[in-house]
Predict the 3D structure of the following.
Amino acid sequence: MCGIIGYVGNRHPEEILLEGLKSLEYRGYDSSGIALKNEKEIQIIKSVGKISQLEDKIKATKLIDCNMGIAHTRWATHGGPNEVNAHPHRVGKIVLVHNGIIENAKELREELERKGIVFQSETDTEVACALINEYYEDDMITAIDKAVERLKGSYALGIMLEGSNKLYAVRKDSPLIIGVGKDGMYIASDVKAIIKETNQYILLGEKEIVELSNHSYKIIKDKKEVLKEVLTADVSKEAQEKGNYKHFMLKEIMEEPIVLENTIKPYLDDMNLIPDLTCYEQIHIVACGSAMHVGFIGKQLFEEKAKIPCSVECASEYRYKDVLYDRKTIVIVISQSGETADTIAALRKAKENHIDTLAIVNVKTSTIARESDKTLFIEAGPEIAVATTKAYILQVAMISLLAYRSALVRNKEEKRIENELKKLPRLVEEIINRRDTYLKIAKKIYQEENVFFIGRLMDYAICLEGSLKLKEISYIHSEAYQAGELKHGTISLIKENTPVIGIITNEKIKEKTISNMEEVKSRGAFLITISNSKVDCGDINITLPKISEYLEPILVVPTLQLIAYEVAKLRGCDIDKPKNLAKSVTVE
Ligand code: G6P
């Protein structure tokens, strides 16, 4: 969601900025733009649509000779995706790019309009730009500082000033890093955008203002200079390339066995590395999107195995509701990026209420990783496809380990699962290699309008993600339903050939779910069953290996991910960058 890259140094910025924007594409966007600057001029080029469209425009333009520039991918919030609203914006001497949302933009806009400023766009970004311009007299740090005092909401800003050879940036609640290179200095939304140039970076803190020159940087907070550590990124260039795969999504699914092995390994020898949660009387799992679906799997395991009451909520609701912390509570937040705005807000709410927090995160340098009391990292490496796959499966593995560890403490008789954990990566590998079956299923689905996923208890939790994966990348409407609930309304949508995917991994409720499968079949559904024991009532039946209940979801998930992938491919969708979606949702 919105990506920023900026450069000042010895080189012309064109290639650096374009390459940076391309590596930020995965975050999701609908327009883009760049601004180039030398002592005399500022040149701005913008385009709606893909970066390749911006690139074509840039190639067709005579660029100014310069060594500084900022660029941006925009995911529309205030005002539709058109060229006027695209960044960079310019007001007076100031040109800037912005990621985030300025919440008091309306009020500031009215105030500035009263002073005679005429805005060109509908954006909150142009308001921030005008505000800094308004405050600028002869010192940019003071002007930015004054603007920061007034701006409410979240922002990462990359700023240039006419006539100056310095590049400026500031952030609050929105990610921004500084890159330290041999040929110059960079700002970026994440390290991936600059990794081809340098792996040396600095994490910019809340409301810290940075002033960059060709080879130096100065970070200022509350008018005082701040010294910060230069970190080394471990993001390899290969991890960011598709290699021989047609899509990042497929590459990332194929990486699942190895990343599972890497994530599980430390705990096989010492399960005590996982925190014991039995001292808590309740667990709140809070997250967004697929990460929230991980929570529903966690809920089943915490309640059934570790006997700890657990509720799951989407972070955008949790942050605003009256939460009952009447019993000893731990809040578990789950986030691949560690930068999801609502999840950060939920985490902060728990902390303000003096509640213990634990995060399951992929990005080690993220805000959530830094702010939560305890963090369990998954080892997914960079995930580029917008729709999460390998990070999701690792989050499921991690929440299962958490529940298992508490269950071991709670129940001395609990059956150990370490041996099965060791086998898990190989079993996942076997499952992802059944590509022909997934293609066969996809051919039955890809021209349909509706698909239903049904299951009970844990199987329903798995259905939620299977359904999301399918609809987000293939644009086919799909719903996940508790198998027994379907007949209370939704069954009226089942007609001849409507695909229904039914999941059964639990012997206890097997016969019940089979009855629900028969109900849809007798109304014409094309039934696909996925089970870990013999089920033969489907038109296509997939049988998975039997494994511990803790790990069962991990075997079903790749099957559903690959069905979604094959369907989207048959429909010719832009699989890695589904329309309107963003990888890292840094606004509310
Ligand atoms: C976006 C992504 C989803 C992801 C969700 C939460 O909506 O498209 O794939 O599950 O954000 O992201 P997080 O980084 O917090 O896991």
In short: The longest strand covers residues 94-102.
